[in-house]
Amino acid sequence: MEVAKRLEKFQKSRETINNLKDGIINLGRGFPNFDGPEFIKEAAIQAIRDGKNQYARGSGVPELNIAIADRFRKDTGLPIDPDNEVTVTNGCLEAFAATVLGLINPGDEVILFSPLYDSYEGNLAMAGAKIVSIPLQAPNFAIPIQKLKSIVSRSTRAIVINTPHNPTGKMFSLGELNAIASLCIENDVLVFADEVYHKLAFDVEHISIASLPGMFERTVTMNSLAKTFSLTGWKIGWAIAPSHLTWGLRQAHSFITFSNATPLQCAAAVALRAPESYYVELKRDYRAKRAILVEGLKAVGFKVFPPDGTFFVLADHTPFGLENDVAFCEYLLKEVGVLAIPCSVFCLNPEEGKNLVRFVFCKDDETLRVAVERMKEKLRK
Ligand SMILES: Cc1ncc(COP(=O)(O)O)c(C=O)c1O
């Protein structure tokens, strides 16, 4: 009951987003308004025609597990065992849920950096974890290493990291990752690393914490097809972890979804074999979108925190004089016709996010330009 109450606030904000009136420009929710690549959609259609329509192996269709392992080796240099160290899940979100439900006992302490992707809190509440949150602050959202050092102890079970980071667009630096790694090794702590935006790293190289010395054996790395291939509705994700951690998360996975859509998994294997040029073009297109939105928001009068990665931008709304982020977003929706998300929904302590709002740029260039024009016209300082 207590958990259900904690989760209620997420349902309400999702309902608002799902019931938008016609004509509202949705720069709120993180899904593209353009489609995924033809070659992947064709592969799914072909798989359906080829009769790949029955339950898949619980840990994933073998060809997809192999493609995930190959991609991970290319990205990190780590050779992994596709059968015993890769688990296909219902998106990155289920990878996180299975990890938490499989590896966290009630009362275990888990450290989160706030603001954070909202489902972490829900999943950790379901597992009965004791959440300890560390705020990240504008302008650079750096990890307060001294504070982290004072909190991590032998009673810490896990640290959750998300790089590139939703909603700030921050990318964890090598120095920050090394500091987290040495604390984890010293105190025997696990890392749950959500890397769903790893191919949307614009200015800084993405580093998987699992690739640092001594870290693979204590890390679950999570990812999915959603953002890299503009296929958020497919919900094909995965968790990569050493076999002793994989065993735990698979126990939970087998009672959450057991297995996921077979033909989409076959197509995901094709997606992960995309040539490197695909990723180069993806980044080029998103860089251009980031420029349109960041420069546009500055011209409107926001103080903007340009992201190093992801497709999110945080902006300080206080020049417009509204009481807080929720009041600002309500005004923006009703009077301007643009949806943004109040940053306080991503914070365990809502006070921390009250000056900021999150916009997305996973929309076609014209939509981004029209949204900026609307704000220029109708938002008064
Ligand atoms: C940080 C983060 N992790 C996970 C997800 C969910 O990924 P999927 O759709 O693959 O479950 C999202 C979606 O917005 C996200 O922002």
TrEMBL record:
UniProt cross-references to Gene3D superfamilies, sorted A to Z: Aspartate Aminotransferase, domain 1, Type I PLP-dependent aspartate aminotransferase-like (Major domain)
Pfam families assigned: Aminotran_1_2
InterPro entries assigned: Aminotransferase_I/II_large, Kynurenine-oxoglutarate_AT, PyrdxlP-dep_Trfase, PyrdxlP-dep_Trfase_major, PyrdxlP-dep_Trfase_small
Keyword set, alphabetical order: Aminotransferase, Pyridoxal phosphate, Transferase
Keyword Transcription regulation: no
The protein's required cofactors: pyridoxal 5'-phosphate
GO CC, alphabetical: cytoplasm
Signal peptide: none
Domain of life: Eukaryota
Aminotransferase class I/classII large domain ranges (all copies): 24-374
Molecular-function annotations in GO: kynurenine-oxoglutarate transaminase activity; pyridoxal phosphate binding
Database matches in PANTHER family: FI04487P
Protein known as: Aminotransferase class I/classII large domain-containing protein
Species the sequence originates in: Vigna angularis var. angularis
Upper classification of the organism: Eukaryota, Viridiplantae, Streptophyta, Embryophyta, Tracheophyta
